[in-house]
Amino acid sequence: MKAKTTFNCQSCGYQAPRALGKCPGCGEWNCMKEERQPATGKGRPPALGGVQSEVVPLEDIELTGEHRTGTGIGEFDRVLGGGVVPGSVILIGGDPGIGKTTLLLQALPRLASKDGPVLYVSGEESPRQIKMRSERIRVTHSNLLVLGETSLGEILKQVQAHTPTAIVVDSIQTVYTDELTSAPGTISQVQEVAGKLMFLAKRTGMPVFIIGHVTKEGAIAGPRLLEHIVDTVLYFEGDKGHSYRILRAVKNRFGSTNEIGVFEMKDSGLEEVANPSELFLAERPQKSTGSVVDRKSTRLNSSHVSESRM
After folding, report:
1. Is 219 exposed, middle or buried (0-12, 13-18, 19+ CB in 10 A)?
2. Cα–Cα nearest to 167, from 178, 176, 157
3. What is the phi/psi pair of residue 150, to 5°?
4. CB within 8 A of 85, min separation 6: which ones?
5. Calpha distance 185→198 (Å, rounded)
6. pLDDT given at position 305
7. Tens of pLDDT along 221-268?
8. Helices in the chain by DSSP H: which ranges?
């Protein structure tokens, strides 16, 4: 099969057989980039060749109750819907330096167990830099493994060798597959890498956390298809001049999207805010016409946060 060249929009993923100044899909200008498609069809990653699928009658599938693994961070677990579901793919987006890496480093030790380690794959920081950060926030565990790699093929080989119970990819825009000739971070690379990570999670039952960059408009960089592939999409937000951070879900196949998590960034890492209602209500005027506050309720949802920002 002969390889072909297409022009892909880096904003929405629209494909065209020739160069265009304006994308017909999203209307953006000068966003079409030439990319060479693989000569062979997309398929199962070689490192997962031993995993086989089989047809099972729906009536024969047994449900023994929803099993979730807690991260030990109450705010994080609640936004996820009660914990991490096996085989789920969770995308976390946010501005650089907002605390995405810190949040996951603090959550991973609880996911590690005596039966299997957890693997943190970093394409932006070296293992030594990850070690420095973990010491600052006092995170340590004998089964917390770190891999500095951007090649998806090498990552899958290490996953097969160590069989971790969970994996973090930081970030999706730095990882590439050799099956495509385009640069890491392009539409085709992000889509292909995310698809194979999803295949890994569903076939092995291993939860996969993906960290993604956001654009200047605040959306996760890459095609919208990326958010459709994953099970859960979380946004970690906050003002860099402020110490408080908000974690909210915009998509969650295993829970509600109305819950939020509130954290405070300190030198020792992220700390949960026990009473977020008091925090946000403190910024309101003492006398506010037409507003009623239930002092017995100490939990906020997304609508309360939106109101407090107005």
Report:
1. middle
2. 157
3. -120, -10
4. 66, 67, 68, 207, 231, 254
5. 17
6. 46
7. 555 678 888 999 999 988 877 889 999 999 999 988 888 999 999 988
8. 74-80, 100-111, 127-136, 152-162, 187-204, 225-229, 276-281, 302-309
Sheet containing 32-36, strands listed edge to edge, beginning at the edge strand earlier in sequence: 15-16, 5-9, 32-36
Tens digits of residue pLDDT in 27-76:
888 878 777 765 554 454 554 555 566 788 888 777 655 688 889 899 99
Task: Classify burial at 25, counting beta carbons within 10 Å of its beta carbon; exposed 0-12, middle 13-18, buried 19 or more.
Answer: middle
Structure tokens at 186: 């392009």
Q: How confident is the model at residue 179 (pLDDT cuts 50, 70, 90)?
A: confident
The answer to whether residues 83 and 75 touch, using CB atoms and an 8 Å cutoff, is no
**Measuring CA to CA, how many Å separate 55 from each of 52, 60, 61, 246, 264?**
10, 11, 11, 42, 47
Q: In which band, very low, low, confident or very high, does the pLDDT at 182 lie, cut at 50, 70 and 90?
A: confident
Alpha carbon distance 142, 115 (integer Å): 12
Q: CA 230, CA 27: separation in Å to the nearest integer?
A: 26
Sheet holding 144-148, edge to edge: 144-148, 118-122, 166-170, 208-212, 89-94, 232-237, 244-252, 260-266, 269-272
d(CA 140, CA 112): 11
Q: Which two tokens stand for residue 78?
A: 């609640």
Identify the burial level of 183 via C-beta atoms within 10 angstroms of its C-beta, where 0-12 means exposed, 13-18 middle and 19 or more buried.
exposed
Could you give the C-alpha distances from 176 to 86, 149, 166, 192, 199, in angstroms and in order? Answer: 25, 10, 20, 8, 16
CA–CA distances in Å: residue 265 to residues 56, 100, 176, 214: 47, 11, 32, 20
* Residue length of the chain: 310
Highest mean pLDDT among 172-176, 186-190, 210-214: 172-176
